[in-house]
Amino acid sequence: MAKKFKEAQARLFTNIYVCRKCKHKIRSTSMRVLEGKTKCRHCGRRYLRPKKKERKIL
Ligand SMILES: [Zn+2]
Description:
Layout: H1 2-13, E1 16-19, E2 25-27, H2 30-34, E3 48-50
Antiparallel strand pairs: 1-2, 1-3
């Protein structure tokens, strides 16, 4: 159970970004975000931040 929960959490929080402007969630890979290919569907801005608070990978 615990393991399954962890996996689900990883799936939910990795590759999810939040628009800094309108706070909408966008699912994308970090690579696409860094390349500037991902933009908010709602407001069209590219100001995104990872949903995860930890930024150890970056
Ligand atoms: Zn937005």
